[in-house]
Amino acid sequence: MAGGAVLGRLTWLPAEVVGIVEEAPRVRTLRLEAPGWGGHRAGQHVDLRLTAEDGYQAQRSYSLASPPEDGLEITIERLDDGEVSPYLVDEIRAGDRLELRGPIGGYFVWAASQADPLLLVAGGSGIVPLMAMIRHRAAAGSDVPTRLVYSSRSLADVIYRRELEALADRGDGLEVFHTLTRSQPEGWSGYARRIDVELLREAAWPAEVEPRIFVCGSTGFVEAAAAGLVELGHEPRRIKTERFGATGGG
Amino acid sequence: MSFVSRGFRRRRPEGDVPAGRVPPGQHLVGDFPVLSVGPTPRMPLADWHFSIHGGEEAVRWTWDEFRALPSETITVDIHCVTSWSKLDTVWEGVSVDTLLDAVQHEASYVSAFCDGGYTTNLPIEDVTDGKAWIAFGYDGEPLEPEHGGPARLLVPHLYLWKSAKWVRGLRLRDDDEQGFWESNGYHRRGDPWREERYWGD
Question: Does B40 contact A14 at a Cβ distance shorter than 8 Å?
Answer without folding.
Answer: no
